[in-house]
């Protein structure tokens, strides 16, 4: 059982206070910080109107406004930057790797001319080619089929011996399939056994390797080459051993003499010698680099890593392409002077109005709102009177007082935005089938054909024609200045490709508008044929030049206004721009984008927008008999909040430039008029600013007028005649926005209370005083498109919030409608993405509402998981993380009886994950998205502690026992799911495992740490030795994440210790995984026990465990909090049992693990074939001359003898060379079972047994470590030994047997081999 952490540190509080390294034993008091950051607005003022919160009464509107006005609420662990792996630690040690002085080694120098061996001789003999190889189990049973074709490579090793590697293919840079070492080879000769062109490579132990070539000549070449290699190897070995004998004899004598002279030296000289040794020792420590920081595997630490910081959600989606379109000028061939008697300026002879929008022919829809531009000269604008039109008695009086629900202009000057010429269009999914379309309108005068004819004549007298057109235009503008008529259109592709490259070319041609093809569908058909010249040739061209500028929006462009006329930073309308080429003091309007229904292209709403776009589409007056004249039909819309007598229109429509009126808003909007058409189609778009709170009285009133175009000068006729009325409520009976296409009837007259007449007509009740046009048929068709961030037209979202509102306003106990919760996941996915924070806040809030039953909680969590799953598959995981970090705020805590989100979430989640639960689909989704559940629980816990002021309380008293039981059950059920479903649901299981690990790691910050230790223990108990690899991966992944805790060292209680020989010490060093050690140092003990167990698993599992342990040690090295020598020494004492684990497995490590890597040190030559016997005798003789001193330098004698004595004469069977003797192994594709013939002598039997044991150790896949594993283990060994206190290391040696002491130095010898510098060529 793990230690009761809280009680243990209280018990040893005095010792902690007096410890000079108390930072290694305690958690900092400022571990978590709760901050509230102001929301970073992109606008100069808030997009939410000042009175919006007071006007709002609906729950959904209130919650949306709350979402857009709330500041960011963050819980930030102060030391979170230390809670990851070594790669992501703060770079307090510098951002560059340690600098090393460049040194030149002998192995890299060019060979000297006077060298004994010439360059050509050093290169040795080499040969490559294909051969057939027989198995090594004997010759008697061989056949042609026994041979396998292999690619052989004969090469010389650094010790002048030769090796014959063989591969499956010609890729010799890979590890060989096997090898034949030729240092124990006698020779190669031809044989007639088994197959043609065969030859034998005979060994000293009477064994042989059977090879065969394709032809006789190839076989002879191979035999000659192998024998030549053997001859050159023998010559080099004899020369080398002769020199070696002299050196060993002299060096051993010199060593013994120096040791003997030490005892006869004067005491002062001895003291001086010791001081010198101490100075040299200190000098060697200066400037030494940390081994782990130099190790190649950790160099990624210094690379530039991409920051994993979660940024706050932005208003503008980063994937959007923002294009600024500026209209510069419109010029027709007919030009003149509009002022009588003047000679200049020369302008267009009548006003024209341009409307620009984007269309997508792939989706066959309009993808942006309209941008209205008035490019007329100021003198031309004066042709139209500024007075408001007096259409009817209803509209003749327009109130100048601001009414509730009307939009107001803030900060911006209304004169400044009266004539905008630039707009910003946003495109989420750019491609070359998006078109920029411009429609051109003029003041109503007559038919399109008659009005366009003068502009299409190129051979007539333009001056006379212009004067004639001007003569007719002036009275028309005075009488009908408020009415427009279609005139022309043009289009161009916006992008050149699908990567967002903007096509900056202008419009090429302007085409006459056809009166019978005005609908949006007709325009889209034209655009589909736009790239086909034969189709465009049929269109009539108007001589017109429309100049525009198109380019990307610079980041610092000033004076941008949102689609609601709210200034965007930077805003300086009166100051001169800093960059004249890219900025302008003119206003630049953002244009609303109409997104597709694809959830992946959506983004969450972050600022208030509240618009409704109205599209009059058609009016069918073909069969009407109510009105005598109804041909030049104008449609005029008003927005009203009541149908009572005397009600007035709200000034809520955005006024297009050039329209009569004053200011940016108008009380009415009108469509273009078609001359002499009784069944007109319309293409107009009206932009309506909706009030903050809609009610059932809000509606759009449509008035239809017959416009008198052809007037008789003798008669004073009215400009227009009323020919009907229609209306459309904005809200349905259920209270939702009435969006989409609507066919509605037309009434002949308007009377008070007209909104109720539509329902009566639908029921077949004809009111006596109401005269319906054409019998009440649906003659008028209109469409509504909602672009709002506080209203939704989705019925499921609406029903859910209506049900929640009834629950909150009900005075009696009332349960929430479960169907409303269940159906929420069926809502439109785009809408779910838009209102993500608002919906999640409401669902989580329901968990804390009193009186809600457990079934309601379960349904709520299921709905929550389903919605998170939708966000996940819409690729909005980042948004989820942003919500958790910045927007989620737990419910206020009143008293101990109040429900909390964290406890309710944990309780319901563990119940849903129990094996007895039947909803497997939801359980799998819960595993997949468990990160959301765990992170919400953690943030709720932190905010609860801060709200309730419990951070100063004892950890055992912070949360009730019921919550701890819920957390324990949640961990147990989640772990059971992980272990049980890893085969069928690996993705879900892996996500759950990572999320659970991070959750447990974070629990150390808030909960009783002893309780969290038990959680880790419960998790690990679900895993057993022999588990499949996947389970081992999951287990070590969990341990790695938990051990990456920012206060991992204090959790393991590294108290100051002493060796067992020290007196009055409360703590002693632990050199093994004792029960007491694992209890007090729980995480380290668990890690080491898991490592020890994994070392006896297959290689792929071993490597996972070893790398996990290595990386945790590396984190201590790179942590800038623990850079002091004392800190590192104290930390490494926690890992003392690792030394024992390594020594227990030293037999599984070898200096010759890889066949292609051979020992390059002459002193480690394993074979005594060419070792002169006199050297052997000298060594033994010299050792026998001083038997009384042998025990004083036993390690020296052993080190020397183990290098020069052959394996069969070794003093100790545990020596390095016996375990890893290369000569004991001839690598084969099958088990090498030869060398059994000469076992009669005891010496041969012993040698054969040694060889057999070494072979078994070497080739057993579950035993022998590979080179990478050995290097990682040795790296950990060196780091620990380097930083251990001297008394800890001495205590370890005293606690070890003689054999273990020898093994300790053998491990150091392995380090010399595995980390040796082999030269730049290797």
Mind explaining what this structure looks like?
The structure is a single chain. The chain is elongated, with a radius of gyration of 45 Å. Helices cover 36% and strands 15% of the residues. With 1322 residues, it is of the alpha+beta class. Mean pLDDT is 81; it is low at 112-122, 246-251, 388-399, 575-583 and 1153-1262. The strands form eight sheets. Strands 6-5-4-3-9-8-7 form a seven-stranded antiparallel β-sheet, with helices on one face. Strands 13, 14, 15, 17, 18, 19 and 20 form a seven-stranded antiparallel β-sheet that branches. Strand 8 (198-203) and strand 9 (208-212) form a beta hairpin. It has 40 helices and 34 strands. The longest helix has 48 residues, at 216-263. InterPro entries: C2_DOCK-type_domain (IPR027007), C2_domain_sf (IPR035892), DOCK (IPR026791), DOCK_C/D_N (IPR021816), PH-like_dom_sf (IPR011993), PH_domain (IPR001849). Residues 124-231 form the PH domain.
